Fold this protein.
Amino acid sequence: MKIAAVLFFILASFPSLSLAALNIAGIENITGLKGRYIEKEEVYRITIPHEELKVSALGISLTPPQGLTSWAGFKKPRDKAILSGDIVLLEDQVNPVMSVALDSGLSVTALHNHFLRESPRVMFMHISGLGDEAVLANGLKRVLDKMKESLPAPPAPRRPRIGAGPLTQGVIEDALGEKVEQSNGALKATLGRQTLLYGEVLGSSMGINSWAAFAGSDKEAVVNGDFVVFENELQEVLKALRASNIEITAIHNHLVMEVPRLVFIHYWGTGTSAGLAKGVRAALEAQVKAREEPPKHAAKDGR
Protein backbone atom coordinates (compact mmCIF):
# COMPACT_ATOMS: atom_id res chain seq x y z
CA MET A 1 0.00 0.00 0.00
CA LYS A 2 1.33 3.45 -0.87
CA ILE A 3 2.41 5.76 1.97
CA ALA A 4 -0.25 8.35 1.08
CA ALA A 5 -2.96 5.67 1.12
CA VAL A 6 -1.70 4.38 4.47
CA LEU A 7 -1.86 7.91 5.93
CA PHE A 8 -5.41 8.38 4.63
CA PHE A 9 -6.46 5.05 6.17
CA ILE A 10 -4.90 5.96 9.54
CA LEU A 11 -6.50 9.40 9.62
CA ALA A 12 -9.88 7.97 8.66
CA SER A 13 -9.64 5.41 11.48
CA PHE A 14 -9.92 8.09 14.17
CA PRO A 15 -13.36 9.54 14.91
CA SER A 16 -13.96 13.23 14.39
CA LEU A 17 -13.38 15.06 17.66
CA SER A 18 -14.63 18.49 18.58
CA LEU A 19 -12.11 21.06 19.73
CA ALA A 20 -11.92 21.38 23.50
CA ALA A 21 -11.73 24.90 24.90
CA LEU A 22 -8.12 25.97 24.52
CA ASN A 23 -7.40 28.67 27.09
CA ILE A 24 -5.65 31.12 24.77
CA ALA A 25 -5.92 34.01 27.23
CA GLY A 26 -4.27 31.86 29.88
CA ILE A 27 -1.41 30.92 27.53
CA GLU A 28 -0.86 34.58 26.64
CA ASN A 29 -0.96 35.63 30.29
CA ILE A 30 1.57 32.98 31.32
CA THR A 31 4.01 33.43 28.44
CA GLY A 32 3.57 37.20 28.05
CA LEU A 33 3.39 36.67 24.30
CA LYS A 34 0.68 37.15 21.70
CA GLY A 35 0.24 34.45 19.09
CA ARG A 36 -2.10 33.69 16.22
CA TYR A 37 -4.98 31.23 16.08
CA ILE A 38 -5.01 29.15 12.88
CA GLU A 39 -8.65 28.17 12.63
CA LYS A 40 -8.17 25.63 9.82
CA GLU A 41 -5.90 23.47 11.99
CA GLU A 42 -7.29 24.57 15.38
CA VAL A 43 -3.82 25.60 16.55
CA TYR A 44 -2.67 28.57 18.60
CA ARG A 45 0.85 29.38 17.40
CA ILE A 46 3.42 31.67 19.00
CA THR A 47 6.46 32.82 17.02
CA ILE A 48 9.55 34.56 18.40
CA PRO A 49 11.77 36.16 15.69
CA HIS A 50 15.30 36.44 17.05
CA GLU A 51 16.37 39.88 15.88
CA GLU A 52 18.92 39.87 18.71
CA LEU A 53 20.91 37.01 17.14
CA LYS A 54 23.59 38.34 14.79
CA VAL A 55 24.41 35.18 12.86
CA SER A 56 26.17 34.81 9.51
CA ALA A 57 26.99 31.81 7.32
CA LEU A 58 29.80 32.15 4.78
CA GLY A 59 29.67 35.89 5.46
CA ILE A 60 25.94 36.11 4.71
CA SER A 61 23.92 37.78 7.48
CA LEU A 62 20.86 35.69 8.38
CA THR A 63 17.44 37.11 9.24
CA PRO A 64 14.59 35.52 11.29
CA PRO A 65 12.68 34.26 8.17
CA GLN A 66 15.76 32.26 7.19
CA GLY A 67 15.36 30.07 10.25
CA LEU A 68 16.20 32.24 13.27
CA THR A 69 12.69 32.09 14.70
CA SER A 70 11.54 30.04 17.68
CA TRP A 71 7.93 28.86 17.69
CA ALA A 72 5.46 26.87 19.75
CA GLY A 73 2.04 25.55 18.77
CA PHE A 74 -0.81 24.58 21.11
CA LYS A 75 -3.70 22.31 20.17
CA LYS A 76 -6.42 20.83 22.40
CA PRO A 77 -8.61 18.26 20.64
CA ARG A 78 -9.78 16.60 23.87
CA ASP A 79 -9.21 17.05 27.60
CA LYS A 80 -5.43 17.44 27.22
CA ALA A 81 -3.47 19.96 25.18
CA ILE A 82 -0.56 19.23 22.84
CA LEU A 83 2.53 21.43 22.65
CA SER A 84 5.01 21.22 19.80
CA GLY A 85 7.85 23.69 19.28
CA ASP A 86 11.31 24.52 17.97
CA ILE A 87 13.73 26.62 20.03
CA VAL A 88 16.69 28.49 18.49
CA LEU A 89 19.80 28.42 20.69
CA LEU A 90 23.45 29.34 20.61
CA GLU A 91 25.78 26.51 21.63
CA ASP A 92 26.35 27.71 25.19
CA GLN A 93 22.59 27.96 25.76
CA VAL A 94 21.78 24.37 24.79
CA ASN A 95 22.32 22.46 28.00
CA PRO A 96 21.00 25.10 30.46
CA VAL A 97 17.81 25.51 28.40
CA MET A 98 17.42 21.76 27.90
CA SER A 99 17.64 21.18 31.65
CA VAL A 100 14.89 23.75 32.24
CA ALA A 101 12.67 22.12 29.60
CA LEU A 102 13.12 18.67 31.13
CA ASP A 103 12.61 19.95 34.67
CA SER A 104 9.38 21.61 33.49
CA GLY A 105 7.94 18.29 32.28
CA LEU A 106 8.48 18.94 28.56
CA SER A 107 9.96 16.34 26.20
CA VAL A 108 13.09 17.16 24.20
CA THR A 109 12.64 15.29 20.93
CA ALA A 110 15.53 16.59 18.81
CA LEU A 111 18.69 18.69 18.96
CA HIS A 112 20.58 19.56 15.81
CA ASN A 113 22.05 22.14 13.48
CA HIS A 114 20.32 23.75 10.50
CA PHE A 115 23.42 25.35 8.99
CA LEU A 116 27.08 24.68 8.31
CA ARG A 117 29.95 27.15 8.87
CA GLU A 118 27.73 29.71 10.58
CA SER A 119 29.08 32.06 13.22
CA PRO A 120 28.21 31.96 16.04
CA ARG A 121 27.14 28.31 16.04
CA VAL A 122 23.34 27.86 16.22
CA MET A 123 21.47 24.78 17.42
CA PHE A 124 17.78 23.90 17.28
CA MET A 125 15.99 22.07 20.07
CA HIS A 126 12.55 20.57 19.47
CA ILE A 127 10.18 20.20 22.39
CA SER A 128 6.76 18.64 22.89
CA GLY A 129 4.31 17.95 25.66
CA LEU A 130 0.89 16.55 26.48
CA GLY A 131 -1.18 17.84 29.40
CA ASP A 132 -2.85 20.92 30.85
CA GLU A 133 -2.13 23.97 28.69
CA ALA A 134 -1.25 26.06 31.74
CA VAL A 135 1.45 23.56 32.72
CA LEU A 136 2.74 23.43 29.14
CA ALA A 137 2.70 27.24 28.87
CA ASN A 138 4.60 27.54 32.15
CA GLY A 139 7.21 25.14 30.83
CA LEU A 140 7.54 27.17 27.65
CA LYS A 141 7.82 30.40 29.65
CA ARG A 142 10.64 28.94 31.75
CA VAL A 143 12.45 27.85 28.59
CA LEU A 144 12.14 31.31 27.02
CA ASP A 145 13.25 33.02 30.25
CA LYS A 146 16.33 30.79 30.44
CA MET A 147 17.14 31.62 26.82
CA LYS A 148 17.24 35.34 27.64
CA GLU A 149 19.23 34.79 30.83
CA SER A 150 21.92 32.72 29.09
CA LEU A 151 22.26 34.80 25.88
CA PRO A 152 25.95 35.70 25.38
CA ALA A 153 27.16 39.03 24.01
CA PRO A 154 26.61 39.19 20.21
CA PRO A 155 29.65 38.97 17.92
CA ALA A 156 30.59 41.72 15.47
CA PRO A 157 28.45 41.51 12.29
CA ARG A 158 30.08 40.31 9.06
CA ARG A 159 29.70 41.78 5.62
CA PRO A 160 27.18 39.89 3.42
CA ARG A 161 28.40 38.16 0.26
CA ILE A 162 25.10 38.06 -1.60
CA GLY A 163 23.46 40.63 -3.84
CA ALA A 164 21.75 43.61 -2.27
CA GLY A 165 18.51 42.80 -4.10
CA PRO A 166 15.82 43.02 -5.09
CA LEU A 167 14.55 39.54 -5.85
CA THR A 168 11.92 39.18 -8.59
CA GLN A 169 8.99 37.27 -7.16
CA GLY A 170 7.74 36.11 -10.56
CA VAL A 171 11.14 34.68 -11.51
CA ILE A 172 11.24 32.54 -8.39
CA GLU A 173 7.59 31.45 -8.67
CA ASP A 174 7.99 30.44 -12.33
CA ALA A 175 11.11 28.41 -11.58
CA LEU A 176 9.80 26.91 -8.35
CA GLY A 177 6.27 26.19 -9.51
CA GLU A 178 4.90 27.42 -6.17
CA LYS A 179 3.75 30.73 -4.73
CA VAL A 180 6.08 32.68 -2.46
CA GLU A 181 5.34 35.43 0.05
CA GLN A 182 7.29 38.45 1.24
CA SER A 183 8.70 37.85 4.73
CA ASN A 184 10.95 40.50 6.26
CA GLY A 185 13.15 40.93 3.19
CA ALA A 186 13.00 37.31 2.05
CA LEU A 187 10.68 35.46 -0.34
CA LYS A 188 9.38 32.30 1.29
CA ALA A 189 7.35 29.28 0.16
CA THR A 190 5.76 26.91 2.70
CA LEU A 191 4.13 23.58 1.84
CA GLY A 192 2.26 21.69 4.55
CA ARG A 193 1.92 17.95 5.16
CA GLN A 194 0.24 15.85 7.85
CA THR A 195 1.10 13.20 10.40
CA LEU A 196 -0.36 11.81 13.64
CA LEU A 197 1.02 12.47 17.12
CA TYR A 198 -0.75 11.37 20.33
CA GLY A 199 -3.50 10.13 18.01
CA GLU A 200 -4.15 13.63 16.63
CA VAL A 201 -3.53 15.16 13.21
CA LEU A 202 -0.67 17.66 13.07
CA GLY A 203 -0.23 19.88 10.02
CA SER A 204 1.70 22.87 8.76
CA SER A 205 1.13 25.21 11.72
CA MET A 206 2.46 22.53 14.09
CA GLY A 207 5.71 22.34 12.13
CA ILE A 208 4.83 19.66 9.56
CA ASN A 209 5.88 21.58 6.48
CA SER A 210 8.57 22.04 3.86
CA TRP A 211 9.81 25.59 3.28
CA ALA A 212 12.28 27.55 1.18
CA ALA A 213 13.45 31.12 1.89
CA PHE A 214 15.19 33.15 -0.83
CA ALA A 215 17.27 36.26 -0.12
CA GLY A 216 19.70 38.48 -2.02
CA SER A 217 19.29 39.42 -5.69
CA ASP A 218 18.32 37.54 -8.84
CA LYS A 219 21.99 37.18 -9.85
CA GLU A 220 23.40 36.52 -6.36
CA ALA A 221 20.90 34.74 -4.15
CA VAL A 222 20.82 32.31 -1.27
CA VAL A 223 18.18 29.71 -0.46
CA ASN A 224 17.81 27.77 2.73
CA GLY A 225 15.02 25.66 4.07
CA ASP A 226 13.63 22.38 5.26
CA PHE A 227 12.11 19.35 3.52
CA VAL A 228 9.75 17.09 5.47
CA VAL A 229 9.75 13.63 3.88
CA PHE A 230 8.47 10.16 4.52
CA GLU A 231 11.25 7.62 5.00
CA ASN A 232 11.00 6.18 1.48
CA GLU A 233 11.33 9.70 -0.03
CA LEU A 234 14.56 10.61 1.76
CA GLN A 235 17.21 9.29 -0.63
CA GLU A 236 15.61 10.66 -3.80
CA VAL A 237 15.19 14.16 -2.33
CA LEU A 238 18.81 14.14 -1.15
CA LYS A 239 20.00 13.12 -4.62
CA ALA A 240 17.95 15.86 -6.29
CA LEU A 241 19.26 18.58 -3.97
CA ARG A 242 22.88 17.50 -4.42
CA ALA A 243 22.44 17.26 -8.21
CA SER A 244 21.48 20.95 -8.08
CA ASN A 245 24.60 21.72 -6.00
CA ILE A 246 22.51 22.52 -2.93
CA GLU A 247 24.24 21.59 0.33
CA ILE A 248 22.65 19.29 2.89
CA THR A 249 23.21 20.75 6.34
CA ALA A 250 21.23 18.33 8.51
CA ILE A 251 19.08 15.17 8.34
CA HIS A 252 17.10 14.28 11.44
CA ASN A 253 13.81 13.83 13.24
CA HIS A 254 11.70 16.64 14.70
CA LEU A 255 9.24 14.38 16.53
CA VAL A 256 9.12 10.96 18.16
CA MET A 257 6.31 8.39 17.94
CA GLU A 258 4.59 10.13 15.01
CA VAL A 259 2.79 8.05 12.32
CA PRO A 260 3.90 7.95 9.52
CA ARG A 261 7.55 8.46 10.48
CA LEU A 262 8.96 11.77 9.23
CA VAL A 263 12.51 12.82 8.38
CA PHE A 264 13.55 16.47 8.04
CA ILE A 265 16.26 17.63 5.63
CA HIS A 266 17.82 21.07 6.05
CA TYR A 267 19.64 22.60 3.09
CA TRP A 268 21.54 25.65 1.90
CA GLY A 269 22.55 26.91 -1.56
CA THR A 270 23.90 29.98 -3.37
CA GLY A 271 23.51 30.96 -7.03
CA THR A 272 20.97 32.72 -9.20
CA SER A 273 17.46 32.93 -7.78
CA ALA A 274 16.03 31.02 -10.77
CA GLY A 275 18.68 28.31 -10.58
CA LEU A 276 18.13 27.79 -6.85
CA ALA A 277 14.35 27.69 -7.28
CA LYS A 278 14.73 25.08 -10.04
CA GLY A 279 16.88 23.02 -7.70
CA VAL A 280 14.23 23.08 -4.99
CA ARG A 281 11.56 22.25 -7.56
CA ALA A 282 13.57 19.24 -8.76
CA ALA A 283 13.64 17.97 -5.17
CA LEU A 284 9.87 18.47 -4.83
CA GLU A 285 9.33 16.49 -8.03
CA ALA A 286 11.66 13.74 -6.84
CA GLN A 287 9.66 13.58 -3.61
CA VAL A 288 6.38 13.12 -5.50
CA LYS A 289 7.92 10.42 -7.70
CA ALA A 290 9.29 8.53 -4.70
CA ARG A 291 5.90 8.78 -2.98
CA GLU A 292 4.28 7.04 -5.93
CA GLU A 293 6.74 4.14 -5.98
CA PRO A 294 7.18 1.35 -3.38
CA PRO A 295 10.41 1.47 -1.35
CA LYS A 296 13.19 -0.25 -3.33
CA HIS A 297 14.51 -1.98 -0.20
CA ALA A 298 11.14 -3.53 0.73
CA ALA A 299 10.95 -7.32 0.98
CA LYS A 300 9.22 -9.05 -1.92
CA ASP A 301 6.54 -10.51 0.33
CA GLY A 302 5.68 -7.04 1.63
CA ARG A 303 6.98 -7.58 5.15
Remarks:
- Residues 18-149 form a domain with the Alpha-Beta Plaits fold (CATH 3.30.70).
- The longest strand covers residues 81-90.
- Residues 8-19, 297-303 have pLDDT under 50 and may be disordered.
- Helices lie at 3-13, 24-31, 94-103, 133-149, 169-176, 234-243, 273-291.
